[in-house]
Amino acid sequence: MSLPTLLRLYESRRAPNPRRVSIFLAEKGVEVERVEVDIMGGEHFRDGHRAKAGTHHVPVAELSDGTFLTETVAICRYVEALHPEPNLMGRDAKEAAVIEMWQRRMEFSVLLNVAFVARHTIPAMQALEHEQVSEWGRACIPRMEEALKGLDARLLESAFVAGERFTIADITAWVALDFMRVLRRGPPEGCEALAEWHERMKARPSALA
User: What is the pTM of this model?
Assistant: First the structure.
């Protein structure tokens, strides 16, 4: 029995998690209908969005059988099943575990800290937080910088985040670094391997996604 197809993606194109899915789709060469969700206007908290998604999260993938998928990696995993090549999540159990390990590290140590700093220190982003906690945002700055230094150390020994080829782990780290533009920050001084890797990521055709 064939799997349901991916019909459309509900997204907010400037937000990090929808962009992760967009890059993943671009790397696969997959095109789907896009529906923009105004998260700065609170559309994702409204009944219409919640009725589809069961949550306020974006992105949301709508399948041809009426199923709605949320959570970035879950959507990417389904796309990987529909379109196995180019492989971005592992060709065997060991590689899949290594990629997932690095993907989770990038998500929790790099992307989340960048997001916490942005969402709790930039006044305009109060629309995304019912209550901003500036102390928490400031506390995450050294956590963010430490995570970026750790990523730089990793890239001194590996061409890509999870090994010798581009994977979903690179997408997560790449989007995190790009999102730092809202903080008017870049990699910490001296992180040359990280800066070089980021330039390689920005040169990929999927950077336009």
Answer: 0.96
